[in-house]
Each structure stands twice: as C-alpha cells, then as structure tokens.
Amino acid sequence: MLPRVSDMRAPAPLHTELSTELGLRGFEGDLAPAYGDRIVSATDNSIYQLLPQLVVFPRSVGDLVRVARIAAESRFKDIVFAPRGGGTGTNGQSLTEGVAVDVSRHMNRILEINPTERWVRVQAGVVKDQLNAALAEHGLFFPPELSTSNRATIGGMISTDASGQGSCLYGKTRDHVLELTTVLLDGTVWTSQPLEDQELQQVQRRADLVGAVHRLVDAIQREQVDLIAAHFPKLNRCLTGYDLAHIRDDRGRFNLNSILCGSEGTLALIAEAKLNVVPIPKHSALVNVRYGSFDAALRDAQELIRFGAASIETIDSRVLGLAQDDVVWDSVRQYFPEDDGQRAMGVNLVEFVGDTEPEVEGPVGRMTDALTSAEPSHGRCGFTVARGEAEVNAIWTMRKKSVGLLGNMQGDKRPIPFVEDTAVPPEHLADYITEFRALLDARGLLYGMFGHVDAGVLHVRPAIDMKDPAQEPLIREITEEVVQLTRKYGGLLWGEHGKGVRSEFSPRFFGPLYPTLQSIKAAFDPRNQLNPGKIAAPEAGQLLTIDGLTTRGQLDRTIPSAVRAAYDEALHCNGNGACFSWDSDEAMCPSYKATRDRRHSPKGRASLIREWLRQLAALGVDPESEVAALRRGSAWRHFPMRLRNTWAREPDFSHAVKEAMDGCLACKSCSGQCPIKVDVPSFRAKFLEVYHGRYLRPLRDHLVGSLESMLPALGKMRRLYNLVIDSPPGRAAMRAIGLVHTPKFSPMSMRQELAARAIAVATPELLAALPVEERARSVVLVQDAFTSWYEPRVVLAVLDLIGAIGFKPFIAPFRPNGKPQHVHGFLGAFTRAASRNAAMLRDFAAAGVELVGVDASMTLTYRSEYGMLAEADRPPPVLLLQEWLARRCDAIPKTSSADEEYLLLPHCSERSLALSSLRDWQAAFAAAGANLRVLPSGCCGMAGTYGHEAEHRATSEQIYGMSWGPQVSRWAQSGRLLATGYSCRSQVKIMAGQPLLHPAEALLVRLRGA
Fold it and tell me: What's phi and psi for 33, nearest 5 deg?
C-alpha cells in the first residue's frame, strides 16, 4: 500500500506572518501558501527549480501597494519578492525562494483602447495574443513578435524587454512603451513617461523615492555619457535592463522606462502599461529558401537582406526534422519539399509585408527572380512562396514551436536553454556560429539552432542530461567559452531572453559601468528585496551564478530511472508553457483556461507528479511495484485500512496531486498539442491506480468504469431504465453518487435496424469466406458504447453512407473499448479489456478488410491509450470515418444541387491527435459537391464523463461558454452545424437544446437528396 507522503514543507514562520498580515490589510487577491501551489511556481522554462515560500496573486494595483508597503517594514526586511507573469523565462528570471508575485491570474484586463491615437492601456497580466485579438477589429496590433505570444504577459515582456521575429522593423518592447505604471518599494504608485527637462526638474524636486531615482539616473546620463557610448554595443539587441544608452530618447527627453524595461522585476512591480500599437499589414508573403547546409543559410542571409524584407528567420535541419513528427507539419509540408530525395539542412524564412499588394509583390518578385536566375550558388536548393494571412501564419506557427519541438528529442539528453540567445553583429553571425558549433561538436553534443538571422540572434540549445552529475559541469564549461566567443565578435551573451541567473556575467560585459548599475539598484531597492542577485547587486549583495542554484535535473535524478521511464509522459516537461495558451479557440488545456490556476494545467500537473515521485523515492517506494502488488491482490484485502485512511484524511501530498488530477478533462489535447507531448491523461491514470490502493474510490468511479460492460444488459430494459433515470427519485439518486444529466437510451433498436438493412455482424469466418473482390469492398464498423446505445441513428447513418458509396458494411460485435476505465485509473481492467478487444480486431484485419470507427474519441483510443499494451497485443489500424472516406473520394457521388457550406465543430481529440483528418472531412464533402468549413473552437466542456460529474458541471458549462457557446448560438439554427463527438453533441443538447448532426448524417442526407 502506498505510504502517506507527508514531506510538505510549510512556509517559513516569517512568510506565514507576512501572508496573515496581507490578509488583515485587505489583500483582495489570492494568497497561496500550500505546498502544491508553491511547487507549481518553482519552475519556469529554465533548468532551475526554486521553491517559493509563498505565492500571491494580486487583483489590483492596490494589492501591489499592500505588498510593497509590507516589504518596506523592518520586520519583513529579510523577505525577498519576485514578480511573475507567464512563467516562461529561460533563465530563472521569475524564480525565487521568497514570495512570488504572480499578476497573470487576476490582473489581466485590457483597460482602454484608443484606435485613433493608436495606443492601449493594459494591466501587466494581459497576454500578448489576448491584446492583439482585441486590437484586430481596429486593424492594429502590438508588434514585438514572440514564439510564446499565446501565453507571454505584457508585464513579462516589459520585464525582459522582449523582442523576436521582425524586431529590425518593429523594434523591441521598450520601443512601444509610452507610459509605465509601477509600484515602488515604498508603496508609491508612479507612472513614468518621457519627460522634457522642465518636467524632469519638477519630478527631481520631490523628496521621496521617485525624486531620488530621477536625480540619480539623470546624473548618470549627464556625467557618464562618453563611458556609456564606449561600452554599449551598437546592436539591434542592445543591452536589456538598466539601459543607460537610452536614458534620453531620440528627441532628447528623459525616459526612466529605458531603465525599467528589461529590469526583470529588480527595481519595481509593474502594474499597468500604456503601449503604442501599429497597423496590421494588409498583405504579406513569405519566401522559404532551402539550403544544403545550415552554414549556407546563415551566410546567404546577408545577401537576402538587401531585398528589404521585414524579417529573416532561420531554422536548422534538426528543428525541421522534429517538426515533421508534429501535428504542425501537416499544415506546412507543401512549402518544404525534398530536393532530390534530401531534406533541407537549413531554411531561411524571408517575410515581406505591406499595405498594398504591389508593396509586397514588388520586392518578392525581385527576390524570386534573383533566386530563379542565379546559378546554383550560396548553397541554395530551391524556394517556395506562401501568400496570405492563413498560409503565412501556418509557417510562423511552425517556427514558433521550435523551442518546444527541440524539447521533444528522444532520450534523456534534451536541448536546454542556458546560452540560447546570444547576439552578435549580423555580418559576423555565420563565422560566430561556426565557432559556436565547433565547441559543441568537440564535446559530441547534439543541438538545434533557429532564430532571427537578420538581427544576429540565434537560439542554440545543446542536448544535455541534467540528471547525470557527469554532464552537469558542461553548463559552466560551455557558458564560459560562449562568453569569450561573444565578446570576440562584439556581441552579447543575452540578446533577448534576459539575464536572470546569468547575471554573474554582468560585471564582465558592463565593465566600468557595473558600479553604475549597482547604484541604480541601490536607489530603487536599498535592502535588495526585489529579485535579488539578478542584473546587479548592491555592494553588499551577491549575484546569482549559473551553477549555484538547484536544478530540476538534480531533483529528478533522485527518482530511480525505471520510475522515470514509467512516468516519462510527465518527467520531460521543460516548462515551455504552451499549455498556458490564452486562446479559448485552441483545444489546449480547457481546465487551465477556465480556472487560470496553473495547478490545473499540464505543466502544473507534471510538476506535482515529479515532486510526488521524488518524495516516494525518498521513502524508498516504487509506484510500479505498488501497482503490481495491487493487481495481484484482492481488492478487499486492505479494505479496512483503506476505509480508515479515507475517513482519517490525514495530511498527504498525494491529496494535492489528486486534486489537480481531478480537474483534468482527459481530453488528450496536451498529448497532441504540447510540443514535448506531456500526456496528462496517461500519467493521471497511473497515479489514480496507485492512489486508490491507499484510499477508497467513490461509488461513481466503479459505476462509470463498468458502464461499457453493463450497457448491453441495461439496453434490454431501456424503457424502464429511461423512466427511472428521468424521474425525480432517479435524478436524485444519480446526483447522490455525483452524476448529473445522465444520458438516456435511444428508443431505437439497433438489432432491428441492422436486420432491416441486412447488415451482418462480422466474424472472422464470415469475412474469410467472402470472395476476394467482395472482401476488398467490405468494411467492418467498430462499435463504441456511446453511439451504439445512446445514438444508434449515427451508427446507422455511417453504415448507410458506406453502403451508399458502393461498399458492403459489416458491424463488429460490441466489445468494451475500455476508455472509461483508463480515464478513471482502472488500468488492470483496462489492459484486460483492451487486450480482448484488440485480439478481435486483429482477427478481422487478418481477413483483409478495413476497420472504421464512429466516435472520434473512442476510435483514437486504439492509437493512443492502447499504446500501453505490449506490441504484439496492440490492435491493427482502426480508421476514423473521414480517413476512410478520403481514400474513397472517387466513389462518392457528386450531387448536382447548389453548393452548400456546412460548418464543423470537431472533437478535441481530432484536433490534437489527428489534425489532418479534418481536411479528410473537407475532401469527402467536396467530393459530394459541398463545402465544409472547420470552425475555430476549443473544448465543449463535456469530455466524456467530466461534464456529467456534479462537482465539475459548473466548470464544464464555463468551458462551453468560452468557445462552443458562441459558435452554437451563431450557427445552430442554420441546420448546417455539425459535430463529430458524441459528448460534444450531448453538451450542445443540454446547453442549447439543439440537436446537432454528425457529418456522416449530413453527407448521407445530401447523397439521398440527389
């Protein structure tokens, strides 16, 4: 039996006192001292892990003032604070062992949009893509383009002075900050903006902290102007944070924001910002040039710059290769063909934008003419051109996933960030990278490279196993050599991702100006409480060092390798934060979108599982051995002890993990859309199996887990069942065990309908006896519990559709698929059910007929969850209906009726695990003479049984309202809105009272009408 995991280190007494004091002073946000909350905030996208003593989620500027004023009190002088936004930093910028101040949960409102004057005012927790979605209707956008734009907060962008693709045209974040509202450590709320000299003098006369910092920074600019000019490199990616070179703007005005932007929370707490925004280019094109070597791509970039592109990005062969194994590749593959059977070893993505077509096509034409007419040179292999927003954005989406894709390299050595954003003058980039690659190659390291070749910034992530003590020193060795290399080429170690833990190199790069940075830090933060050790430290303080902090690898290595392998769906999470996506029309993690609680995200759940495994290892417990013992023993053997444990409810970290797992919809979006392929439903099921070896399961779990097996018997008395379940006592009984909106059986008899159609139940013998020609045109439809018993009309429509296009349908005998058992952690029972089902399917496939499923989620179980079976026990391919139809488009009659447009809301699992199959639906409809448009949508909120669970119903409805609700309200009455998922159609019927058709039903109606 699993022991109680009791090592939940409480916050230090002083931090507990601070938390209490904040509550007493009216703190309106959330105070999170619980161990689980702190674990989730202990990591970012860096290699480090620091456990905060407290996490606070302010709701307003007033809350930030309360934090600052308490920090200023002498009794709390030893407590340190670190602001946190998206939590995707690569250098530990937001990590702290003190108090994490996270603005992302509540301070995320867009306060004002002024399209006429082209500015916006936002809170610090607003996400970049959230802002741009609101600006789009005005034809405007906030331009610094980041790969993390769907989760990066404006406060975080300002704190690192973020830049990215297109910075040569649009500049950095700092270039768009008009005003910055910050809370200083004495509690003063100050809005900084460019000041004329007279205005500056007025501010300098203030007797408070505001006046002091303005006097100091102005004096630095006046007295050290020559020293600053001599030591600040003239780069597009100039030094971020404490930017002495731009204290005066190009109009000669004093601008404190040049000091604050990029200061990484070391000087003040960012509350709000007024930002400049710019018009969205009306036209765009992307020229994708392929090369025989990555060096050729880098060297040719200097040649391509002369065509006046808005940006030039580069990607190496390793990133391209990983992209080809990701769902993203399906949308861009046509732009990266092979050359004589060889994949490109590097590509340059050259973007042109403009307000008119000639503005774009002119330079594109000059460039493509030059590429076409030139003899094979510069290592070029060929090029393609993408035009229009949709096609261009698809390629940029692939480029944005580069960081995550690298993290999905197989094996224990994974590319990690520590020297990943160096910047050198663009004309030196190729030579610099040649030497950079040589120092990595000399150590036999794999790595991936991509970045902003026009700005001289390349992202390099060497693959190192940080769990291996022998490899850990490579961080110091490589960093020291790269520091020397960047200085040799007149560049920087930190081109755009901030300094963070790498701040130990500040004195080397700033040289005689480093004491100036120390004086600025001391003026803003005299007790060194704000993110200490980063960028600059007061004379008595110490800078952090790259090998002086706890790393995730050091903690993970305490977990036995066999256990790590068993839970690798969680252990490889690198904190890239793709699961924090703001967009409600993306499938990725609906539970996070609904709660804004990072515990309820794939990264949060992976962090909790890692800590749980680490603590079990410290106790000498192997969860895999526990599972084996549970499956061997009787469920009743330890019943008294499990009953006692359940009633006692003693402190146990396992409960914190269980709470996070309970919020998971098991929608599988993470397993497909996370670039690392973190698979929460898989490790959630493993956890639940072990957890319930110590604690009793609720009755509901047993009922749901056995539902598929019970349906045939219940179906025989469906009228009585429906009568009972729909009665007040029946509904009350269901609610008592935690179920609501329980579905009713269809009154239709599947058996009678099959008999009326003369559709036979498949057997291996029946199939084998068919003539070869007939067998080639036969299909076995694999049943699932939910459509067969609750929506047989859909099953019959699929069978009729197969027959309508000239094929002979058979139906497989009903066998439990096992997915409900997997979702609830009955993995022993799932394995047995899956093995039996897979054996039947193998027998059918051996006869040479194709297998097709009805419900997307249940069908994709054969590819996903069934992967845990031994290879010999796995099922043969079971096609989604649309995949089968797409192969048979020539058999689909084209109707002569007027073209109609149908609208599709697909199941999350299709978007995540079979994205290309959505185009298969479009191909099938096109073959029938109809158009099918796939609507942007996230999760419907039902996700199997999740939306039927009483405690989750409110969240289920909230998720529905975020994406599906608006689409259903707009389109349902058209009669052309379709949904592939049974659970999705059920949710719409509950929420909108509107039955939706399955695409097969719509196709069948169209064919019959013709």
Answer: -90, -5
Q: Can you tell me the distance from the alpha carbon of 617 to that of 558, in angstroms, rounded to the nearest whole number?
A: 7
Contact partners, residue 856, CB within 8 Å, separation at least 6: 880, 906, 907, 909, 910, 914, 917, 980, 981
Q: List, for residues 388-447, the tens digit of each pLDDT value.
A: 888 998 998 888 877 777 777 888 999 999 998 999 999 999 999 999 999 999 999 999
Angle between helices 953-962 and 964-971 (to 10 degrees): 60
Q: Which of 864, 889, 867, 862 is nearest to 878 (CA)?
A: 862
Q: How far apart are CA 156 and CA 392, in angstroms?
A: 27
The Cα–Cα gap between 87 and 96 comes to 12
The predicted-structure confidence for 810-837, as pLDDT tens digits, reads as follows 999 999 999 999 999 999 999 999 999 9
Amino acid 236: pLDDT: 55
The overall average pLDDT reported for the chain is: 93
Q: Enumerate the β-bridge partners of residue 291.
A: 346, 380
Please give the helix or strand (H or E) that residue 114 lies within, else none. Answer: strand 110-114
343 against 268, higher pLDDT = 268
pLDDT, tens digit (0-9, with 9 covering 90-100), for 223-259: 999 999 888 767 655 566 899 999 999 999 999 999 9
Rounded Cα distance, 153 and 581, in Å: 11
Gyration radius from the chain CA atoms = 30
Please tell me the distance from the alpha carbon of residue 440 to that of residue 426, in angstroms, as a whole number. Answer: 21
d(CA 101, CA 55): 6
> For residue 55, what pLDDT is reported?
98
pLDDT at 403: 73
Helix, strand, coil percentages in the chain from 3-state DSSP, rounded to 5: 50, 15, 35
CA neighbor of 789 nearest in space, from 749, 837, 755: 749
Instruction: Indicate the residue type of 171.
Output: G
Of the candidates 792, 790, 793, 795, which has an alpha carbon nearest to the alpha carbon of residue 743? 790
The pair of structure tokens assigned to 461 is 């992530």
How many alpha carbons fall within 13 Å on the CB side of residue 480? 7
Quote the tokens at residue 302: 């200097």
| CA nearest neighbour of 666 among 879, 784, 825, 791 | 825
According to DSSP, the β-strands at 901-905 and 931-934 are: parallel
3-class DSSP state of 347: strand
For residues 152 and 162, is the Cβ–Cβ distance under 8 A? Answer: yes
Q: At 514, give phi and psi (nearest 5°).
A: -60, -40
Q: How far is CA 364 from CA 286, 288, 379, 803, in A?
A: 8, 11, 20, 50
